[in-house]
Every structure is written in structure tokens, then in C-alpha cells.
Amino acid sequence: MALALSIACAIVATELIGQYGSRATHFQRKMDRLQAKISQMQARLASANHQVTEMRREAAYHDEFERILAASDSQLIRLEPHDRRADIGGALVISRRLSAAALEVVGLTAPGPDKHYAVWWLQRAGAPIAVAQLDPLDRSEDGVSRLPLPPPEAVALIITLETAPKSGRPGAAPILKGEFRKDSSRRTGPR
């Protein structure tokens, strides 16, 4: 009788272990699926946080552009494409009182390998002055860039597509050009 009871207990124990093992496997699969969902959600959250950061950065640049534009001495220069059929353009806003300048460009495409967009001040006399490099892939469609103030002798701003490393002179024809108005004491643009 004791032997039969021991065998019965062993059978029940084996069956319980099997059931608990089956349940443990089931719950492990559930936990794995939940962990995969959590990982997907974390990836989506990281992507959304990156987008929010970029939107805040762009909003800050646009706020800066508007702040400069609202200055009493602001000067707004429209950048026109060299090829009038091109779907690109831009605007430069300058305020000497705020010691600030901002450039907004739209429609630039990816420059390709070993190429970059360069921004230059053109002077009345003398060599052009390199100002900045633009990377349209590092900007939103309507990215705004802060620039240093142009020197007093500057008469225009140009953007070129350069193939060589940074040099002291533009190596290509302007893609965009904006000429400063002659009388800088008068304000143009909305108030």
C-alpha cells in the first residue's frame, strides 16, 4: 500500500511539474512578446523624441529669424536662383543693432559625394569671404542658419555648390544670390 501511495504521489508530482513547466513556458513566451513590444515602443519613442528635438531646434531658428526681422533696422534680402526655372530660393535677414544675421534656404538638394554648399559674402572690392557650409540633409525642408554679420563692404551673398575642399574663393557659379540694397538706412519687409 505504501508503495502504491508513493507511486501515485510520484505520478501526481510528475503531472504537476509538467503542468507548471507548460505554464512557465507559456508565460515565458508571453513575457518575450511583451518585451518585444516594449522594445518596439522604446524605438518609436526615441524616434519621436528625436523628431520633437529637431522641431524645437527649427522653431528656435525660426524664432531667431523672426526676431531679427522684427528689429527696427532689419534688412531683408531675397535670394534668387541663378537658373530662374529652379525651384529653390531663400532669404537673408540682417540687423546691425542686434548684431545678428540669419539665412533661410528652401529647395536645396543633397550635394552628392565630395561636394558641399558654401555661403559667401561678396565685397565691393576684394576677394569673396567664406561664411559657412550648408548641408541640406542636416536641415529640415525650410532650414534656417545663423550667420555672422556681413562686413560693411559686403554687397551680396551667394551660395555655391563646391567640389573642392574649403578654399578662399568660390569654385563654381552661384546657385543663389541676394544683393544688398544701396540705402541701408531704409527698412524693407513687414513690420
Give an account of the 3D structure.
The chain is α+β, with helices and mostly antiparallel strands and 191 residues long. The protein is built from one helix and eight strands, in the order H-E-E-E-E-E-E-E-E. The protein has an eight-stranded antiparallel beta sheet, covered by helices on one side. Strand 4 and strand 5 form a beta hairpin. The chain is rod-shaped. The C terminus is likely disordered.
Q: Classify the beta-strand content into a percent band.
A: 25-35%
What is the residue-mean pLDDT, rounded to a whole number?
A: 83
Write down the overall geometry: rod-shaped
As a whole number of angstroms, the C-alpha radius of gyration is 32 Å
Order of helices and strands: HEEEEEEEE
In short:
The protein has 191 residues and is of the alpha+beta class.
Strand and helix layout:
Elements: H1 2-69, E1 75-81, E2 89-95, E3 100-106, E4 116-123, E5 129-134, E6 144-147, E7 154-162, E8 174-179
Antiparallel strand pairs: 1-2, 1-8, 2-3, 3-6, 4-5, 4-7, 7-8
Key descriptive features of the protein:
alpha+beta, 8 strands, eight-stranded antiparallel sheet, 1 helix, 36% helix, 191 residues
